[in-house]
């Protein structure tokens, strides 16, 4: 019981910090269900509370992101945060940018199935040696994997940058820009360390 009370207290403190009005009420309901022995309902309410916390964190991350990258503008109506347009239970945030021809997307996702593979490739560059379109780069001092898909027929060139921190994957994809330096320059406009601090 003491452990449950401690966990509820910690979650409540986080909830108050992320300014979600529904979370404290859900935690109260979870505590009430637990005390009455209804463990299934207690777990369900805790899951809802955690979803509310992740939504608040996601909104904070979106506020940190730039409204413009190069000649591309953020498409506010396509912003996505956990629980709004997806049934995913962890932290998920995405923002799209569009220009006349090119477009980009920033995505932050916890517990991604790609975490292990990307970590392995970053730790052992020999896996990338055979592919001239893959290499390690640094974003805000952090190692990341850059993959280029060259233009083919009607498909424009695409760059995909992936960075792992904790149990979270940061992905930046951009289509229609040939210059790698221009792509990494856009990444410099994104407060990656700030996002990491909020998401972890």
Globular, elongated, flat, extended or rod-shaped: what is the shape?
elongated
Order of helices and strands: HHHEEEEEHEEEEHH
- What is the total tally of β strands? 9
The oligomeric status of these chains comes to: single chain
The number of helical elements comes to 6
In the residues, how many domains can be counted? 2
Strand content: 25-35%
- End-to-end gap: 27 Å
The CATH topology of the largest domain turns out to be Protein Transport Mog1p, Chain A
Largest sheet: 9 strands, antiparallel
Task: List its traits.
single chain, alpha+beta, 200 residues, 9 strands, 6 helices, Protein Transport Mog1p, Chain A, 41% helix, disordered N terminus, 9-stranded antiparallel sheet
Structure description:
The protein is α+β, with helices and mostly antiparallel strands and 200 residues long. Helices cover 41% and strands 26% of the residues. The protein is built from six helices and nine strands; from the N terminus they run αααβββββαββββαα. Strands 1, 2, 3, 4, 5, 6, 7, 8 and 9 form a nine-stranded antiparallel β-sheet that branches. Helix 1 (2-17) packs antiparallel against helix 2. The two termini are 27 Å apart. The model is unreliable at 1-19 (pLDDT under 50).
